[in-house]
Design a protein that fits this description.
alpha/beta, 4-stranded parallel β-sheet, 3-stranded parallel β-sheet, 14 helices, about 15% strand
Length: about 350
Amino acid sequence: MLETIEEKIAGELRITTDEALWLYENAPTQWLQKQADFIRQKLHSNKTFYNRNIHFEPTNKCIYSCKFCSFYRKPNATEEDGAWDYSLQDLEEKLAKYGQNDLTEIHITGGVHPDRGIDWAVELLTHIKKLRPSIHIKAFTAVEVTWMCKVSKVSLEEGLKTLQKAGLDSLPGGGAEIFDPEIRRKIAGGKAPADRWLEVHGTAHRIGVQSNATMLYGHIEKFRHRVDHMDKLRKLQDESHGFNSFIPLRYRNENNKMSGRDEVTQEEDFRNFAIARIFLDNIKHLKAYWVMLGVENAFASLDYGVDDLDGTVDDTTKIYSMAGSMDSPALTSQFLIDSITELGRLPIERDSLYQEIK
């Protein structure tokens, strides 16, 4: 089987779902590393991408209580409970810390607030574009978009077009979790189902809004569920061509309803990256989100097919720090440049759509 798959990789032929599952169950890690790095080199030569971004999480109040989530607070929770609702003034103060040319992207995701519809999102987007006309706004998971459209009683396409007109430039990949209905029900009961997530992104691609895709792994899913998840993404990408990158997200086990479960090993992280790089032949970029993975492991993943390290983030996200990842996630551009260079790779600053910034 290894020889057959290796011949396919060399010939730039697509592997099947059965072959991907076989790789998860049987392939030596060293072999996976070699093949994933071969593909990475063909796609990107020696380049490693990063960007200058911050994260803004307007609220952690949420109508859904996902078992894996350490970020969630009940809709009626107070500050004493660890809940927050940031205002436009709070956002202004956060952006004021940076010069007009210090950032290229603001990444916005948060809890699914029960009362917030499209009008709230339009106000937020409009305000950001007024403050920073050139900044790229990557905002709102498919789950958030679905709820906002429901609150505002508009169709998905109408809602997305309204957001696009107000300044939405792309969608993040969050909320995908795992697509298998049974596993999704167990860990994220009530959240928009997989077909809705795929519909949101497919619709966004159709109207010219590009996006990313994620997969939450290392909880109760099996290898076959990961393959099924990536297969659904690969099929949508064949149709819409709108995914910029794929981001495997490691389950972190602190302060949530699944905290009794062990996390996967570092080797499993690397194997997962490598198989994703081999299987997702139509998604050009594979991202290691260092906030979730840890800086050292993120850099190590560059040997397993990864070509993108996300960005500076700058201590502006709590979704993973509250689950046991880094307490104060922040890197400077210079640190990323120096670290990538020390690994013998070429650091490339990109914009949010992977255009190189000279």
